[in-house]
Specification:
The complex is a heterodimer of chains A (about 130) and B (about 200). Chain A has about 130 residues and is an all-alpha fold. Helix content of chain A is about 70%, strand content about 0%. Chain A has a domain of about 90 residues. Chain A starts with 14 loop residues before the first helix and ends in a 13-residue tail after the last helix. In chain B, helix 2 crosses helix 4, helix 7 crosses helix 9 and helix 8 crosses helix 9. The chains are: A mainly alpha (about 130), B mainly alpha (about 200).
């Protein structure tokens, strides 16, 4: 029943003290109690597991972060291209628009005029339609 | 009961880590081997703290659910046992505060079912009373450390992790507690040796 008093390692178990304490100690769980408690714990675990082990939102976010970042970059690039393209088309259309509108007005005003139509359509052949007396 | 003494062999650590991995992957049944392995030591810790069987069972159940809820924070390179016993201990302290009236009651002495012998002689009864009295006179920390070490087989390091103490400090408390018990129980040494 003696310790050597060293604090850097555990003392050896004291069999006499163990026997004395064992006389008043609670026994370990019996097999029946143990099975009952184990069953109760596992049924509680079954009820709680789905909720408890479901990943937290930040874990889901972290899992998808690389894909989300790549998708974000792609979206920015794509929208930049679309924006740039539409601006380019708009400026080109802006330059052509007045002329096109004016030509349309002329064509509407003289619907049967083949010469005018030929001029407007850019037909540069020399072949003229036969002259007819009006 | 699986002996808790020692930090646990590496293969136990690896086996527990694999089970934890499976549980986190959604396999709740993988928690069952952990429950089987750590139920008895956890119950002993709970009983030392609460001195009541039903409260100890409730605490163990609650501690397993708490461990499950915090499984992601468990460092799988370390042994599961000390981490889990720490949960039992801290939740047990909280539970004991809410059961403060019971904490004031004397230590509960329970006999082994097989030892419930009506013909137990007066000397043995005196011895049990004296042991209980000597334990009750110890400062609580010393008493718990002596019981956890000498009866339940926890190592100084495990007790230290549980109680938030340096292992050297645990061993000092153990030394003090043992010395006090030996002084009180010295008169019974001869009777005990006779069996």
């Amino acid at each position: 029943m003696r310790d050597d008093g060293a604090w850097d390692r555990d003392p050896v178990p004291d069999p006499v003290l163990q026997r004395l304490l064992g006389r008043v100690s609670v026994p370990p769980l019996g097999e029946t109690d143990r099975s009952r408690l184990e069953g109760a714990i596992m049924s509680a675990v079954g009820r709680e597991a789905a909720r408890i082990t479901a990943p937290a939102w930040w874990e889901i976010a972290a899992r998808w972060a690389p894909a989300a970042a790549a998708a974000g970059v792609a979206a920015v690039l794509l929208s930049g291209l679309v924006l740039f393209g539409s601006r380019f088309q708009a400026s080109a259309a802006g330059e052509a628009a007045p002329e096109t509108a004016a030509v349309a007005q002329v064509i509407d005003r003289y619907p049967g005029d083949a010469v005018l139509a030929s001029l407007i359509s850019g037909d540069d052949s020399d072949a003229l339609s036969p002259w007819r007396e009006p | 009961m699986s002996s808790p003494r020692g930090a646990g062999p590496r293969d136990d650590i690896a086996a527990d880590a694999a089970l934890v991995e499976r549980v986190l992957g959604g396999d709740a049944e993988a928690f069952a081997p952990l429950v089987r392995r750590y139920l008895q030591p956890a119950y002993n810790v709970a009983y030392r703290l609460l001195s009541n069987r039903q409260d100890a069972e409730d605490l163990v159940q609650e501690a397993f659910l708490t461990a499950l809820a915090n499984l992601r924070s468990f460092d799988r390179s370390r042994p599961f046992g000390p981490w889990f016993y720490r949960i039992v201990w801290t939740r047990g302290l909280n539970l004991r505060k809410s059961l403060a009236r019971r904490a004031a009651e004397p230590l509960e002495a329970e006999r082994h079912p097989g030892a419930a012998d009506p013909s137990a002689d007066a000397e043995r009864s005196d011895l049990a009373e004296t042991v209980l009295g000597a334990l009750a006179e110890l400062p609580e920390r010393q008493r718990l450390i002596v019981q956890l070490f000498d009866l339940d087989g926890f190592s100084g390091a495990e007790i230290g992790e549980m109680l938030g103490l340096n292992p050297g400090t645990v061993r000092w408390y153990l030394h003090q507690g043992r010395r006090a018990l030996r002084e009180r129980l010295a008169p019974f040494q001869e009777a005990l040796d006779e069996g």
